[in-house]
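Worked example 3. Consider a protein that binds zinc ion.
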Amino acid sequence: MNFSQETAQHLTAIIQAQRPAWTINGIMKALQALAHSHTPGQALDQALNAAKDQQAKTPAAIIFDQYRHQNRATKPGTQPACEDHEGETAHNCRCCIADEKLGQRPREARGKHHDPGDPK
Ligand SMILES: [Zn+2]
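Given these inputs, the predicted complex is written out as structure tokens:
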């Protein structure tokens, strides 16, 4: 299990806010099915993707693979990918931006391979 029952309850509240018609029990069951293979963030992403899809009639859809990694940053072929962070686009990689804020990556290295130990 990557997350607890308590975490699943918190996620359920968020998902139910997105799709009030979905039952708490149904959402909880789907999240529990994801708990062994997903982090809380991955489960939330996937569940929200399902919840936003009006074709998804029941919360059971949360477990469908088609809702996995449907991140707007990862549409294939539209943007170059970050060289350091899988699933992020080079120009607005969230991991690189976080590194920049921490002073561990210069702005010009966003989306490019950067070794913080490299003096250049
Ligand atoms: Zn990056």
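Take a moment to read the result before moving on. Helices lie at 5-18, 24-34, 40-52, 94-101. Residues 50 and 66 are 9 Å apart (CA to CA).
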